[in-house]
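Reviewers of the previous submission asked for a worked example of the structure-prediction workflow described in the proposal, so we include one complete record here. The input consisted solely of the amino acid sequence. No template or homolog information was supplied to the procedure at any stage.
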Amino acid sequence: MNQIKRIMAIDPWQIKSDTLEIEDRRLQESLTAIGNGYMGMRGNFAETYSGDMHQGFYLAGVWYPDKTRVGWWKNGYPEYFGKAINALNIAKIKLVIDGAEVDLATESISDFNISLDMAKGTLSYTYVVRGVKVSAERFFSVDILELAVFAFMFESVDGKDHKIQIDAIIDADVKNEDANYDEQFWNILDKGQTNNGSYIATQTIENPFGVDQFTIVASQTFAGNFEAVGQTTAEKAIINRFEKTVTAGDILIFEKRVIVTTSRDYADLAAVKVGNQAIVEKSVQMQDYNSLYQAQVTAWAKRWDIADVVIEGSDEAQQGIRFNLFQLFSTYYGEDERLNIGPKGFTGEKYGGATYWDTEAYAVPLYLSLADEKVTKNLLKYRRQQLPQAQHNARQQGLKGALYPMVTFTGVECHNEWEITFEEIHRNGAIPYAIYNYTNYTGDETYLAHEGLDVLVEVARFWADRVHYSARNDKYMIHGVTGPNEYENNINNNWYTNTLAAWVLRYTAESLAKHSRADLNVTADELAKWSEIVGKMYYPFDEKEGVFVQHDGFMDKDLRPVSALDASDLPLNQNWSWDKILRSPFIKQADVLQGIYFFGNQFSLEEKRRNFDFYEPMTVHESSLSPSIHAILAAELGKEAKAVEMYGRTARLDLDNYNNDTEDGLHITSMTGSWLAIVQGFAQMKTWDGKLSFAPFLPRDWTGYTFHINYRGRLLKIEVAENVTVSLLSGDALTLEVYGQSVELTSNYTVKVGG
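From that input alone, the workflow returned the following structure tokens.
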């Protein structure tokens, strides 16, 4: 197993440390990132920090189309690589004490503490420097999404007077780190001073692809008991200066409020500026810090009322699930149907793009249970709105129908690795699966009958064109693909991809039979062709092992378990050449097992057991998406120790830096995995054929766990300890199964664990 690296203390509600991590500052910044769905930033200090760090502030839906860079251009390549871009440094201050600037990378400081409070959505840190205690607190408001608040408090702790000077800055002189060669993407349009602060307007640089440029206006206003002594502007920054002397027994307070508006919501620069000022005047200036803070606390408390998973007996497990839920909801809470869930959220630039198939495969089940139905419907609408672009992607490959992208902001594929762009087409099954999942979970068929069928038919047409008929075998096959296991490229007949393609064709035909849509022009011949493909799809299978074969040729490899590797080999992607990885039998993430998870009601327990026992020992889990699927299947198979192990890995993937890459940013979309592992794994919640069921077990080191779900207009509470109690908190009576027994739930039902 990979060595974990834990730099933050275990606490049920906080991510905290009393050490300023100089060597691991980037990791600490990732772990203390905050956001509100509209914007967010890494846990950078506001004060000067000259050491190694990754300053990053990001705005949802704001990006840049950078020229695709490949060694050799091929027909069908995307024209550009869409990138999340670092927008501004809105937190920045220059702190001067007694005439000398404070640099936290070089300063001799004491009593350092940093804490991310997940219950309230606040980040705070304190330290003592030159006889002054500095306390900082910030939050990105979930009540006023355009608002970020940065508050500071200063106390003399050595009995002396100290002159404090603060330069409050918004700095547009920022660069990107990931795959951009330290490029800068912003021009300055305007900057100036206001009665109580200043503003700066920036715009993304021109691009040759016809993609709209984004305009940003950021303004800062101030509160507290400092005296304003000057306003200046630099070439790419605005600066407001404040001074005050802190005396023994006194406390100085400085508060910086930043409002950020963008051209995503306003027509032009003038409108963006007017909108910004309106928010300042109507929503921010009229409130004191306490009222803004209390609105934040109340909003997060409302989210936690439903979403919280309470674990008794393990603070380590408790911290993991709350951290993941906190970061997910800091990234996306469904307010804007133009947005999706980026793989790094507001914590870094790696991977590019606004969305992957992770959303449909991993995030949709969580949001169905923990948020209003409209949140998931917004995720579905995001894809429906981009159907024309998906059709364009298919044409780029010379194919019919629609091919949804692996990486995108607009719906047009914008990833620049051939094995992803051309071959990882299984993502085109995850989008239809999300439509099925929504329909099956909610019982609402209206979306399926309208926007859903628009998507299903075009995706089905893609699959019908992408397969080929093998006359020698009298089978339909799919060659030249990459499955979920990205440690295999350009392989033939990936079992998962073939299974998903056939399912899409069958589900689309069944949905058309239920909801006739003459406007989609699906002919009888077309339906007959789909049926023929489904009936003759090739599924590689090994009779000796009794398992579905990941792809043609896989069984010819030197099949070995991960336990045969030396610890120094892991993670493979950081120690082996790509050639060596591709030739090895080692699996990055669930592949065959991903399909068994998706379609769990189609396979017997014995089939699941054989495939799990065969594939899991060869899986290195170097994709953040992998552990949760294995946890769920292990739990169903009664492999409790493995299920708990995999829960720990998915719940604490970033907190313990399992894959040695968290310094680049958090693995946001995979954070759903910890919730899935508990709810669909430990509690065995299933919703096959619109029937809700549970069969919970209690991990040996836990004394209990509790969670809520929304289901078809009801709110349920599930408590697991010595007994299992399912309570109906709101909504009509519901028939469900607990350990295979039918229950008519009108208030609560209790049964001993195990039935």
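The chain has a mean pLDDT of 95. We consider this example representative of the routine output the project will generate in years two and three.
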